[in-house]
Amino acid sequence: MNRYDVLTFGESMMRLTPPGFLRIEQTQSFDIWVGGTESNTAVGLARLGMRAAWLSRLPRSSLGRYISNRIAQYGVDVSQVVWADDERLGIYFHEKAQAPRASEIIYDRRDSAISRMQPRDLPDGLFEPEVSQLFHVTGITLAISDTARDTVHEAQRRAKAAGWRLSFDTNYRSKLWSGAGAAAGCDQAMALADVIFCPLGDYQVMYGASSADEALEALAARYPDTLIVMTMGVDGAMARNPAGDTIRQPAILAGEVGRIGGGDAFAAGFLYAWLRHDDVAGALKWGVAMSALKYTIPGDLPLVDREAVAALVAGASGGGLIR
Predict the structure, then answer these.
(1) Residue 85 among the catalytic residues
(2) Which one of 3.40.1190.20, 1.10.10.10, 3.30.110.40, 3.40.50.12780 gives the CATH number of domain 4-314?
């Protein structure tokens, strides 16, 4: 039996958000959250009962320990974290708003500890056949620095050699690179992946305007041996397997309390069902159910209950009821 079901790798930051809908320039306090796409997914998997681990590089400081402790609190193994002296933690500010005012994110992550991570920092003995079933990473980790990109590529090569499956989420961020830069920068990682998550919006920025069906076909042609999963917001999600079958799943509409992390929750739900049952249709249902529930939870982390997700997958919404 493997030690882990899934190992994720990426940056987690401290998120500072003014309470309510205050603007940053008027607030006198901030709510503190922990957020990072790969650790969000790891927490979601752990909440569903999977053995999830998170690999990263953190400053050996109270701030680094704060991040590590919060992620471990929800059942994620953080023993693979690389600790670095005299380095900094990435921070981001999130100003929540409602239409017509747009929410805003401000990054303060340049030269963070993980952006300085190099292939030689990968833990010895980690990428072995008995350690994990799957390695999950996203385009964000590729984008934060050249050395982080090199580390992702080396980690993928080691995981592949160990017989693990590889999962990759494009997770495009316009403040980190351009669409064309993301398309070129993600290609090597996507070519190695067994499953690719690509939101329709990411595809359109990276490759050009297209319908969802055309985008799915184009990705399948580019990566023919890969399971392609495309999310489309209120239009749901769909997937295309290497055999050429397309599976569609409507969205589960949810009230929006905490939008950030919805895509990471989808990935967690999908990977949970896919690894357990190798059923793409069922995995899409778990993905949209996880994402819908995450929208009802403040913060970045998908602090869901497995029973609630299962009930939503089975068709029992539970909305508005007191349990």
Answers:
(1) no
(2) 3.40.1190.20
